[in-house]
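Design job #97: recover the sequence.
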C-alpha cells in the first residue's frame, strides 16, 4: 500500500518538467486505468504519473517507484462540494473528513456562517484551524450575514472591516452567500461595503435569493453576486442561469432539489452548474453518501456520467478559481478517486495530494495533532423560564411546515385556550414553539405556534436554529418544553427529547452548541436515537430536528419565529401572534 509520504513537498518547476518528460521516475504510477477527462468529456485509457503531490503526466511510458495496477478501473478528479455548512453535519472538521473523504470528496467550499453567528471571528478561525492538515481541503467563504438580519439576536456581528483580514488567509477564497438580498436591493451601506471589499480583491461572491426575479434579480447579479443555491423550480433556475449566475443544485438532508432542477441542465449550460449539499446529516452521509450520491442520483435520472462528474470537479474548481485541482491532467494536484464504474460510483480508493487516504469506504488518516477549543456559547437566563401566552384574540398566526422544504406557510387558525392562556392544540397538530436567546443572557423569548411537526406528547429542543442558533423548543405543553430546554442547557448545547418532564435522549454539541466532538459513527447513533424518540412522541417527519432548526430563519418565507418575535418574512417585519 502506497502512502507517498514525501508528496507534500512542493516541487520546483524544473522538477515538474523532468517528471513530465519521463526523465525521472515518478513516485507513484496509477497504471491501466480509464481516465475521466473532464475537459473533453472523453474516457481514455492512460497511466497517471504522480510526484510530490502533483500529477506530472497522463499517458504511456512512465515509470515510477511505486506502481498500482488499476485493471481498468476509472480514475477521476477528487470531488468538490461547492457549498455547505460543516456545522450542519454536527461533526467537527476532522470527523466530517472521516465521513466524506472515503466517499471521494477531497475538497469543500464551506460557509462557516453558523458558528460565526455564535462566536464571530473566533468561530471562523476555529474552522480554519481545526481543518488544517486534513486530507480534505476546507476552503472558506467569509460569512456575509452575521447577524443574518436585525430580526433576531445573534452571538456576534461582523462588519466589512471585521471580514477584511480574513481574505489574507490562503483558504479564504470569497464572500459567502449574501442572504440579505433586501439589504442589497435597498443599498444598505454595510452590505455594499462587504460586496465592495470582495470585488476589489477579484474574489467570487455567492448568492442566496429564493424567488428573486425580474429587475430585482438583475440588480442583485449586477452587484457582483454570481451564484445561487436556493432555486426551487426550473423557470427560476433558467432565469438565474440567463443572468450569468452559476446554478448550485442542492441535494441536502432537509432540502432536495436535484430531481426537480436536473432537467434544466443541458449540453450548453452544464459547465455553469454545480452539485452542492448545503446541509447534510451524518445518517445521510453514512447511508447515502456525499457528492458521490449526488452524481449517482443524477446519472440515474438520465444525466451523462462525465457531465455529472464535471459538476463536482472542474465546474466548482473553476467557479472558485481553484485552478490547481478539478481534473486529471498534468500540473494538477493529485486529488484522485478510483471508481469501479460510472453507474453506482462505488469509490475504491481516494488519494489526496498523491497520498492514499481512504480505501474501501474506510479512512486511512488520523486526527490532527493540534487540538482546537472554542469559548462556551450557552448563556441563558433559565431560572423562572416562562412560556405562557395570555390570550389576546380568537385567531392566531401559525407557522405551517412544508415537509421537505425550508419555506413555511403563514396560516391563520383558531386559538385553543385554557385559563386565559393560549395552549397547544394537539388534535389539530398545532404545537407551541419557543425561541430562547442563548448568547447574551438577555432573557428574550419569542413565542408562537407551529403546525406540521406532529407531536402527540412531549417536547423537542435544540441549539441548532438557523441562523442565530438560539435555543428552539417545540412541544405539547409548557412543562415538557421547559424540561427539554434545561436538558440542552445542562450539556452546553445540543438536542434533546423529553416526555412527562423526563429526558428520553439527548446529544451533546459542545462546539458552539452546533457540533459534537464524538466520532461520526456515534453522532449518527445519537441522532438515530433522537429521531426514534421523536417518532415515538408522534412526529411523522423524517427529521423533525432539522425541520425545527429552520423555523427560526427569518430570511426564508413566509412566517418564522425568532427570540424577538414572529416575523413575516415577505414584509421583513414583525407581526403580532394574534390576528
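Job complete. Output follows.
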Amino acid at each position: 500500500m502506497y502512502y507517498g509520504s514525501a508528496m507534500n513537498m512542493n516541487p520546483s518547476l524544473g522538477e515538474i518538467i523532468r517528471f513530465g518528460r519521463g526523465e525521472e521516475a515518478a513516485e507513484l504510477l496509477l497504471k491501466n486505468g480509464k481516465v475521466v477527462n473532464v475537459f473533453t468529456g472523453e474516457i481514455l485509457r492512460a497511466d497517471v504519473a504522480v510526484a510530490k503531490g502533483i500529477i506530472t503526466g497522463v499517458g504511456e511510458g512512465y515509470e515510477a517507484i511505486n506502481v498500482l495496477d488499476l485493471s481498468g478501473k476509472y480514475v477521476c478528479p477528487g470531488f468538490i462540494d461547492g457549498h455547505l455548512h460543516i456545522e450542519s453535519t454536527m461533526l467537527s472538521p476532522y470527523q466530517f473528513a472521516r465521513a466524506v473523504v472515503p466517499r471521494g470528496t477531497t475538497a469543500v467550499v464551506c460557509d462557516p456562517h453558523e458558528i460565526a453567528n455564535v462566536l464571530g471571528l473566533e468561530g471562523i478561525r476555529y474552522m480554519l484551524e481545526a481543518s488544517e492538515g486534513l486530507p480534505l481541503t476546507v476552503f472558506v467563504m467569509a460569512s456575509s450575514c452575521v447577524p443574518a438580519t436585525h430580526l433576531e439576536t445573534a452571538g456576534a456581528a461582523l462588519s466589512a472591516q471585521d471580514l477584511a483580514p480574513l481574505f489574507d488567509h490562503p483558504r479564504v477564497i470569497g464572500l459567502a452567500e449574501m442572504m440579505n438580498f433586501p439589504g442589497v436591493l435597498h443599498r444598505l451601506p454595510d452590505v455594499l461595503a462587504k460586496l465592495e471589499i470582495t470585488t476589489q480583491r477579484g474574489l467570487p461572491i455567492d448568492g442566496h435569493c429564493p424567488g428573486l426575479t425580474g429587475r430585482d434579480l438583475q440588480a442583485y447579479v449586477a452587484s457582483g453576486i454570481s451564484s445561487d443555491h436556493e432555486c426551487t423550480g426550473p423557470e427560476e433556475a433558467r432565469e438565474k442561469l440567463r443572468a450569468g449566475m452559476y446554478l448550485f443544485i442542492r441535494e441536502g438532508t432537509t432540502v432536495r432539489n436535484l430531481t426537480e432542477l436536473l432537467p434544466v441542465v443541458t449540453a450548453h449550460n452544464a459547465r455553469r452548474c454545480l452539485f452542492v449539499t448545503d446541509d447534510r446529516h451524518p445518517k445521510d452521509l453514512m447511508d447515502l453518501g456525499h457528492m458521490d450520491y449526488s452524481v449517482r442520483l443524477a446519472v440515474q435520472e438520465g444525466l451523462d456520467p462525465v457531465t455529472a462528474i464535471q459538476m463536482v470537479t472542474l465546474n466548482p474548481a473553476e467557479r472558485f478559481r481553484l485552478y490547481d485541482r478539478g481534473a486529471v491532467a498534468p500540473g494538477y494536484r493529485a486529488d484522485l478517486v478510483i471508481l469501479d464504474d460510472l453507474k453506482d460510483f462505488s469509490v475504491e480508493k481516494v488519494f489526496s495530494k498523491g497520498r492514499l487516504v481512504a480505501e474501501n469506504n474506510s479512512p486511512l488518516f488520523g486526527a490532527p495533532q493540534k487540538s482546537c477549543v472554542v469559548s462556551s456559547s450557552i448563556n441563558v437566563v433559565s431560572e423562572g423560564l416562562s412560556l405562557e401566552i395570555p390570550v389576546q384574540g380568537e385567531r392566531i398566526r401559525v407557522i405551517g411546515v412544508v415537509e421537505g422544504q425550508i419555506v413555511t406557510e403563514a396560516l391563520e387558525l383558531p386559538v385553543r385556550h385554557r385559563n386565559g392562556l393560549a395552549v397547544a392544540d394537539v388534535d389539530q397538530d398545532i404545537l407551541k414553539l419557543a425561541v430562547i436567546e442563548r448568547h447574551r443572557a438577555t432573557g428574550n423569548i419569542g413565542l408562537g405556534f407551529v403546525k406540521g411537526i406532529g407531536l402527540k406528547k412531549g417536547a423537542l429542543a435544540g441549539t441548532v436554529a438557523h441562523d442565530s442558533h438560539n435555543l428552539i423548543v417545540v412541544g405539547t405543553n409548557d412543562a415538557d418544553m421547559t424540561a427539554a430546554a434545561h436538558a440542552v442547557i445542562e450539556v452546553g448545547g445540543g438536542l434533546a427529547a423529553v416526555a412527562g418532564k423526563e429526558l428520553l435522549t439527548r446529544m451533546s454539541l459542545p462546539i458552539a452548541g452546533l457540533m459534537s466532538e464524538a466520532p461520526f459513527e456515534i453522532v449518527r447513533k445519537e441522532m438515530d436515537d433522537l429521531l426514534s424518540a421523536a417518532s415515538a412522541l408522534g412526529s411523522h417527519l423524517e427529521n423533525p430536528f432539522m425541520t425545527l432548526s429552520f423555523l427560526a430563519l427569518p430570511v426564508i418565507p413566509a412566517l418564522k419565529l425568532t427570540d424577538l418575535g414572529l416575523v413575516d418574512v415577505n414584509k421583513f417585519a414583525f407581526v403580532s401572534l394574534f390576528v
